[in-house]
Amino acid sequence: MHPILLAFVVGVAGGGVFTLLHLPLSWLLGSMISIFFVNKWTKLDLAWPSYFRDIGLIIVGYAIGQSFSQETMIEIVTQLPSMLTMTIAIIVFSMVLAYITSKMTGIGLSSTITGSIPGGLSQMVALGEEMKNIDLTVVTILQVIRLLSVIFVVPFLVFSPLFKSGGGSGSGNALPPFEVPSFQWVFILFFIIAILSGIVAKRIHLPTPAMLGPILVIGGFMVAGFSVPHMPDPLIILAQLSLGIYFSFMMNFSSSKELSKFILWSLFTSLCLLLCCAGLSLVLSRWHDITFLTAFISLAPGGMAEMALVGQAVNADLSIITGYHLFRILFILFIIPASLKGLFKLSFFQKGQQY
Predict the structure, then answer these.
(1) What is the pLDDT of residues 61-100, one digit of tens each?
(2) Of 52, 208, 201, 49, which is closest to residue 122 (Cα–Cα)?
(3) Which residue has the higher pLDDT, 30 or 179?
(4) What is the pLDDT of residues 136-146, one digit of tens each?
């Protein structure tokens, strides 16, 4: 069997089992777990090209774009000061955890800071490549472990009795449950537009272009008052499968066995960051007319696509969630690189760079 087809079959099997067990984000988490164990315990050849991940991101971006309206845009603009405050708070706390990690493991502070800031795996690894004395293995492990921790922990938290107060937000703009429409030409047209917008976003080097392009274009249609057809549930499931299978290939740490203590410490600091975000979410929900659930998913230090899928599953306010994650990505993309490069020139950061 072809490696790609085999990976798809294994992912569907895992997602099916998780669905039967009524576990949250069953197709995403189930495919991740099944692919991971097949990769680890068998000699089967599995593969999953990055363009399948991009298709999943386009589907998620389309769904996120549907949550926008003129009212949500006004709400996002009014929350810009809160976005800045929360983003800075999360970054500062991440840097504190990076300092503790450096002290406990002896790894260079520059590497742990670059790996700890929740700016996205690809963006922070690319930033690490541009700077001197950065251990890319450390950066990658920290980013992957934080991302995987959030992907696994947040869904179980938001589906737990702790959050049974319900989703949505006070602004009343949460995305309604997805329906399965017929594949009319209107949906096909908008989906083609979403695909093209992802391609254009990649050409102009936007962050996470396959998702951000459809968000901006489909969201623009929604704000302009167009009636955009709903994304069918089967395609949402396909997006979860595609992303879950892709993320599972990031769970291979066999080349870093000597960093086992560091990996465990990274997991601990990731959970500490989640607790910090939970505390900030309580403050945010008091500041604005949004639920604690929406605030928590908005501030969780995971990827925008993964948190959007969690928000969609619990009917939280996707536009607010996307606004906070997008603001953090752009802030880290444009502000953090120059700041870190200047910071790392200080003599304090030149000590103990090598593991």
Answers:
(1) 898 888 788 887 888 889 999 999 999 999 999 999 999 9
(2) 208
(3) 30
(4) 778 878 888 88
Token reading at 330: 């752009």
Neighbouring C-beta atoms of residue 148, cutoff 10 Å: 20
Q: 222 with 69: CB under 8 angstroms?
A: yes
The model carries a pTM of 0.74
Domains and CATH numbers, the chain: 48-350 (1.20.1530)
H or E, element range at 247? helix 233-248
Which own/partner pairs from 331-337 qualify as long-range (CB within 8 Å, at least 24 positions apart)? 331/84, 331/87, 332/87, 332/91, 332/117, 332/118, 332/119, 332/120, 332/123, 332/124, 333/119, 333/123, 333/207, 336/91, 336/117, 336/119, 336/127, 337/127, 337/130
Give the C-alpha distances (Å, rounded to integers) separating 101 from 110, 122, 129, 241, 259: 11, 21, 21, 33, 12
Residue 168: CB atoms within 10 Å: 17
Per-residue b or e along 117-131, where b marks 16 or more CB atoms closer than 10 Å to that residue's CB: bbbbbebbbebbeee
Exposure b/e, 242-277, CB count within 10 A at least 16 = b: bbbbbbbbbbeeeeeeebeebbebbebbbeebbebb
Which phi and psi (to 5°) does residue 24 adopt? -65, 150
Q: Which residues contact 292 (CB under 8 A, 6 or more apart)?
A: 163, 165, 281, 282, 285
Query: Contact 257/60 with Cβ under 8 angstroms?
Result: no
**Which pair of tokens denotes residue 272?**
């500490």
Distance CA 179, CA 175 (A): 11
CA 40, CA 56: separation in Å to the nearest integer? 25
* DSSP character at residue 49: -
